[in-house]
Each structure stands twice: as structure tokens, then as C-alpha cells.
Amino acid sequence: MATVSELYQARVTSGQLEADPAQRGVLPAMDRVVRDLAMAAPAAPAQPAKSGWLSRLIGGGGAAPAAPAPKGLYLWGGVGRGKSMLMDLIMDAAATPQKRRVHFHEFMQEIQAGLNAARQRGDADAVRPVAQGVARQTRLLCFDEMQITDIADAMIVGRLFQVLLEEGVTIVTTSNRVPEDLYKNGLNRQLFLPFIQLIRDRMDVVELASATDHRQDRTEGGQVWFSPVDSIAQGQMGKLWREETGPAPATPLVLEVKGRKVELPQHVGRVARASFWDLCGKPLGPADYLAVAEAVDVLFLDNIPRLSQSNFNEAKRFVTLIDALYEAKVRLIASGADDPERLYAEGEGAFEFERTASRLREMRDADWGKS
Ligand SMILES: Nc1ncnc2c1ncn2[C@@H]1O[C@H](COP(=O)(O)OP(=O)(O)O)[C@@H](O)[C@H]1O
Ligand SMILES: [Mg+2]
């Protein structure tokens, strides 16, 4: 099995990646995780029954305590530096078949659903069985984009990680922020601080301080972002819509999500169209946006306004929507008040928005998308 360093070098040699000294600098920490995982005992199989005096003497029968999980990795740095790409290399290099890479939002959704079920069963400590359920199938858990903005997530993530680690799961995560800045200014933040300590104790915290935003290097293709929202933009959006959908009449797309209905005013097959306000002006959440991203290959999004603190909730939903579309590789064709990087220039949340702007820029590439 190749190490992360070897996989990286092979991609540089083949021209798939440009050599980046800062990326090279974090490879040893990644190799260490993969090596420790390979050396860690696999999840203990049941002991074969032995009847010899020695095994009776040493008192077999009781399960051996789980060995502590190999130390994980918390890789942080600015947008476009290659964090997700490097995480993919860890996934490729890890020998265990019990490895899972999942977007943090999506994982927390799954956990919250599990917690609800456990609470309904009346479990006193609901986090433990849910985390144990995950741990049974997973030795290496990779989260891309850990960010904690939701108080419900903030209040359980410490306990969740604690049980996962106790159960021998190694956690690798990427983030735009240094651990100390997670859930910054969040409600009840003091209850969150032990989680930061847990990260420091149980994960190598490594900064990817590359000078290059690799996303900016990519070339732009056909125009899919129109600003400002004027009659020219509207005309071009309309023209592209007709090109994508043909003469077929559009109908509303109604998705059922957890018993709720999420409606996009128009769709033809897997091409759908909605305005910013249809999708971000209503109290929709990650599950709704994941459902939209799953249902379409191309999304036309009209009228993205300039965002600021005064429409913080809409901005936050927009960030979640773009994350879901990005992960699912949905092609986005949009009209907005300004260029992505100037849509949300200041105020609380402007920092998180940099990543969204970077993703929007990448989604404008000609070769972006699943169709
Ligand atoms: N060394 C590199 N050479 C060429 N392209 C790269 C390199 N590192 C990353 N990329 C590309 O740049 C883009 C951004 O990288 P990504 O891993 O998504 O960054 P991050 O997760 O840090 O925002 C991706 O398309 C990725 O494949
Ligand atoms: Mg990334």
C-alpha cells in the first residue's frame, strides 16, 4: 500500500498536481496517521474458547479493553489550499476497509436523527449508543469542512468525539479555522471549550499554510454567473434555461423532506429553477438543501441579493445551499447582485462566506458539474 507521500509524489510526477511546498510539509503528519492505523490491532475478534489451565489462570472471558485509537489529524488552512484533496489521499492510502469520508454537515444530520431515535427509546445517554453504532463499522472517519455554527451540534460534538475515540475510531478532519476559533462567539461557548481541548489532546493540529489558492488558478469557461441582476442578466438566464430544458413545459418540483414539502417553482427532468428567496428566504435547513442537491443536476438560481448582517439567516442558508450543491457537484447557473466574493463583504459570517465565494468561483469552471 502506498503512503500519502508516495501518492502525492505520483500525482506531481504525472502532472495532475503542481508541487506545493506547504502541502509537502504536511505529508509526514498524514503518513503518520496511515502508518499508525495500519499497526493498530484490528477491532478485536471474539477470543476462541480455550480450556487450558493458563487461560483459566489469566482469567479469559472478559473482553479486553479497546486499545486507544491512533491519534487523529486536524488539518486547517485557507480556502483552496488543498485540504480536501489531501484528505482524499489519506482515504486512498489507508489500508483498512472500515474507512469513511463524509461531509461534516451530513454526518451531524445523521447523528441528530440517531439521537432523536435513541431519546424516543428512552436512553439516558443517547450519544453513547449512536456513537457506538458508528464506531462498529468505522476505524477511520474523515470529515471534510468541520465548522460548527449550530448550537445543537456544538452541544453534542464533544461527547460524540469522546465516545468515538474511546471506541477506537481515528478522526481526521479539515477546517478553515484553528480549533480555538471553532464556534467563535457561539451561544454557551464555555460548554464547547472541552471539545477544543479534546482536539488538542487527541489529534495532531496541523496548519496548511500554502501561499497558493489552487482554485483561483483554474480557467473560467462559459458564463454561468450573471451580475448585476438586470434585463441583460435575466435575458441570458432565460436563454440558457431554454437551451437546457428544450421545449418541454416546466412544472414545480416538490420534494418531501422529513414530512415537510420543499418546493422549487420550475423543473424539467433534473434541471430546476428557483429564486434566491424561494430557497433561502424560508426556514429551510441542511436536510432540505441536501434533498435539492440530490434531485437535480443543474440549478438555475435567480436574484441573489447583496448579503449582510441584516439578512444573516438568508446568508447562512445560502452558504448551506452552496455547500450541498458543491458536494453533489450540481451545476449552478445564477444571477446575483455582484461577484461572489463581493456578495457578503462584511459583518458576522463574512469569514465563512469566503469559502462559499471560493466554491462559487470553482463552480463557474467550464468542466464543473456532473452532467
Ligand atoms: N498542488 C495542487 N496542484 C494542482 N491543483 C491542486 C493542488 N492542490 C489542490 N488543487 C486543486 O485545487 C482545488 C482546491 O483544492 P481543495 O482541496 O478543494 O482545497 P480546500 O479543501 O483547501 O479548499 C481542487 O480542485 C484541487 O484539486
Ligand atoms: Mg475543501
The strand order across the widest sheet is 6-11-10-9-8-7
What profile does the largest beta sheet have? 6 strands, mixed
Low-pLDDT runs: 44-65
Helix percent band: 40-55%
Name the overall outline: globular
Bound chemical compounds: adenosine-5'-diphosphate, magnesium ion
- CATH superfamily placement of the largest domain: P-loop containing nucleotide triphosphate hydrolases
DSSP strand content = 15-25%
For the terminal residues, how far apart are their CA atoms? 33 Å
Number of strands: 11
- CATH structural class of the largest domain: Alpha Beta
Order of helices and strands: HHHEHEHHEHEHEEHEEEHHEHEHH
At the fold tier of CATH, the topology name of the largest domain is: Rossmann fold
| CATH-derived architecture of the largest domain | 3-Layer(aba) Sandwich
